[in-house]
């Protein structure tokens, strides 16, 4: 059985002649929409993962900065380490070495900057345990033992980064919704054009006792199947592109673009969602258009 | 079956009605001719009979239902009990004859009855047994009219309306078509034939008891013996 026969298997579908370019355009547009939908979905899921990763990573870490004068710096560092290692809720505390500070500053100051000559603060990285420490209590203890020590929980810059990632995720989902609307509009236009082109056939069918439901079924089946087929092909193509992304992309921070196991279920749902959109759009278009055709 | 109660019909924007005050009943098993000059309203009368038009005034009853009160679905169901042979036949040109003839079964979800044997028998009855796979544009005028009759009767309707069925065919073919309609009438079907061919009516009257309705001058009258 070839494609055309498959599309025309039902009684209603076989009565209406092949719709030509409108049906082909439906297939192609559905494929293009599905590609865009997969890309938007991938970006949205990636943004969600990035937001979650950053949230998790930053939420479990903090830094203590010691700005004491040179003569008091060592004593305050030891006092801070003593406080941190005896505070419940802290899994580990480690001083960030000068080499690590050089690496952190290199993007701004250059590889060869004389960082040794700068009066850099002592930085101590904290890894949070589960349950976490009491930040207020820790600040009080630190201020008592090391007056220049400042606890930075990263909350100042963590919040906007996470918010940006969340917005990116919402934009992705918003894009998917818009693609759905665009596809529905396209199917409605194609169905309306096809119904108008087949007005003489619809007239004959009505004269021999066909109900609107029977006539609509022919068009609904045809456009739903074309949309499903196009969305299936488009989703498969887009999935291939996603799979072919190079691993080296992780250097740029895009490692999370790769879809995980559960994410592929969303991609697999796209042809079904496209079919549902096409079905509803064709039903609506046929119902309205048939009322206007005698 | 089909009843007109003081029915009048006017085209939109027209002050004078095409016809008015028409009251008659197309009873079960009756045979009617509808005649009159071109443009008198024969086709309009037929369209009122199958719910394609609604009366401007009065009431057309289709199987007991007021056509003006019927929704599109109810009209569709009523049309399954009315077989219509249109002057221009109204076939789907992309489907072969056997599928065109089987269309009423398909649209009424009775495709199971549209097997090759049934269709062949029906096409044989109208003398088209060798043309089952021909496309409508490949048929002659007479063949198209007989095929249209086959399609009109495949649902075994109670009423058969034929609008100028012999308008485009020769005398011999007209007689052949008439004999088929008379045969259907003998099976209890109500027949209405719109025609301006008086010789066809005269011939029919030798074969069946027919009532002749003449549309002229805005009214529908029972025609006299002058026919």
Strand arrangement across the biggest beta sheet of chain B: 6-7-8-3-9-10
Low-confidence stretches of chain A: 1-9
How would the global form of chain B be characterised? globular
The N- to C-terminal Cα distance of chain A equals: 35 Å
Structural class, judged by helices and strands of chain B? alpha/beta
Largest interface: A-B, 18 and 24 residues
The percent range for helix content of chain B is 25-40%
Overall pLDDT metric of chain A: 83
How would you describe the oligomerization state of the chains in this entry?
A: heterodimer
Within the largest sheet of chain A, what's the order of strands? 2-3-1-4
- Assign the CATH architecture of the largest domain in chain B: 3-Layer(aba) Sandwich
Question: N- to C-terminal separation of chain B?
Answer: 26 Å
Report low-confidence residues of chain B grouped into runs of 5 or more.
Answer: none
Kindly give the count of domains of chain B: 2
Task: Report the order of strands and helices of chain B.
Answer: EEEHEEHEHHHEHEHEE
Largest sheet of chain A: 4 strands, antiparallel
How large a portion of the residues of chain B is in β-strands, by DSSP E? 15-25%
Question: How would you describe what is shown here?
Answer:
The complex is a heterodimer of chains A (294) and B (227). Helix content of chain A is 69%, strand content 8%. Chain A is built from 10 helices and 4 strands, in the order αααβαβαβαβαααα. Chain A has helices at 3-7, 11-15, 21-59, 70-85, 98-109, 135-145, 155-197, 199-207, 212-243, 261-292, and strands at residues 61-66, 90-95, 122-128, 149-152. A 4-stranded antiparallel β-sheet of chain A has the order 2-3-1-4. In chain A, helix 3 packs across helix 9 (212-243), helix 3 runs antiparallel to helix 10 and helix 4 (70-85) runs antiparallel to helix 6 (135-145). The longest helix of chain A has 43 residues, at 155-197. Chain B has 227 residues and is α/β, with parallel strands linked by helices. Chain B folds into 2 domains: 1-81 and 158-227, P-loop containing nucleotide triphosphate hydrolases (Rossmann fold), CATH 3.40.50; 89-156. Chain B is built from 7 helices and 10 strands. In chain B, the strands form 2 sheets. Chain B has a 6-stranded mixed β-sheet with strand order 6-7-8-3-9-10, with helices on both faces. The mean pLDDT of chain B is 88. Classes of the chains: A alpha+beta (294), B alpha/beta (227). The interface between A and B is medium-sized, with 18 and 24 residues.
């Amino acid at each position: 059985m070839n494609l055309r026969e498959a599309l025309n298997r039902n009684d209603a579908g076989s009565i209406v002649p092949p719709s030509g370019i409108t049906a082909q355009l439906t297939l192609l547009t559905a494929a293009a929409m599905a590609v865009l939908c997969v890309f938007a979905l991938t970006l949205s899921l990636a943004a969600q993962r990035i937001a979650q990763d950053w949230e998790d990573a930053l939420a479990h870490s903090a830094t203590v900065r010691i700005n004491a004068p040179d003569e008091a710096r060592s004593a305050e560092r030891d006092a801070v380490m003593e406080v941190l290692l005896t505070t419940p809720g802290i899994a580990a505390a480690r001083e960030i070495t000068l080499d690590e500070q050089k690496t952190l500053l290199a993007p701004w100051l250059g590889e060869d900057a004389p960082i040794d000559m700068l009066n850099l603060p002592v930085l101590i990285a904290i890894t949070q345990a589960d349950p976490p420490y009491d930040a207020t209590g820790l600040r009080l203890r630190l201020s008592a033992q090391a007056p220049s020590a400042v606890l930075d929980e990263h909350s100042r810059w963590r919040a906007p980064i996470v918010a940006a990632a969340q917005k990116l995720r919402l934009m992705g989902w918003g894009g998917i919704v818009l693609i759905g609307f665009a596809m529905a509009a396209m199917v409605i236009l194609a169905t309306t054009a096809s119904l108008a082109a087949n007005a003489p056939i619809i007239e004959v069918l009505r004269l021999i006792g066909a109900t609107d439901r029977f006539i609509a079924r022919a068009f609904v089946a045809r456009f739903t199947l074309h949309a499903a087929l196009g969305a299936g092909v488009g989703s498969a193509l887009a999935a291939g592109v996603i799979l072919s992304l190079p691993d080296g992309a992780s250097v740029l921070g895009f490692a999370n673009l790769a879809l995980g196991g559960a994410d592929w279920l969303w991609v697999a749902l796209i042809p079904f969602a496209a079919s549902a959109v096409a079905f509803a759009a064709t039903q609506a278009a046929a119902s309205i258009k048939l009322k206007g055709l005698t | 079956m089909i009843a007109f109660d003081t029915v009048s019909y006017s085209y939109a924007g027209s002050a004078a009605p095409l016809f008015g005050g028409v009251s008659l009943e197309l009873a079960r098993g009756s045979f009617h001719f509808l005649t009159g000059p071109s443009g008198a309203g024969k086709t309009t009368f037929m369209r009122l009979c199958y719910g394609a038009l609604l009366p401007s005034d009065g009431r057309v009853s289709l199987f007991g239902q007021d056509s003006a009160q019927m929704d599109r679905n109810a009209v569709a169901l009523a049309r399954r009990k009315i077989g219509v042979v249109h002057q221009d036949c109204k076939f789907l040109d992309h489907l072969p004859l056997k599928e065109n003839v089987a269309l009423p079964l398909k649209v009424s979800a009775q495709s199971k009855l549209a097997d090759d044997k049934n269709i062949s028998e029906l096409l044989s009855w109208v003398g088209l047994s060798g043309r089952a796979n021909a496309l409508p544009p490949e048929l002659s005028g007479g063949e198209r009219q007989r095929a249209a009759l086959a399609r009109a009767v495949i649902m075994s309707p109670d009423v058969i309306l034929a609008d100028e069925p012999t308008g485009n065919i020769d005398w011999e073919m007209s007689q052949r078509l008439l004999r088929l309609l008379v045969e259907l009438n003998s099976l209890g079907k109500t027949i209405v034939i719109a025609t301006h061919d008086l010789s066809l009516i005269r011939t029919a009257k030798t074969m069946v008891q027919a009532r002749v309705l003449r549309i002229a001058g805005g009214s529908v009258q029972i025609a006299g013996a002058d026919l």
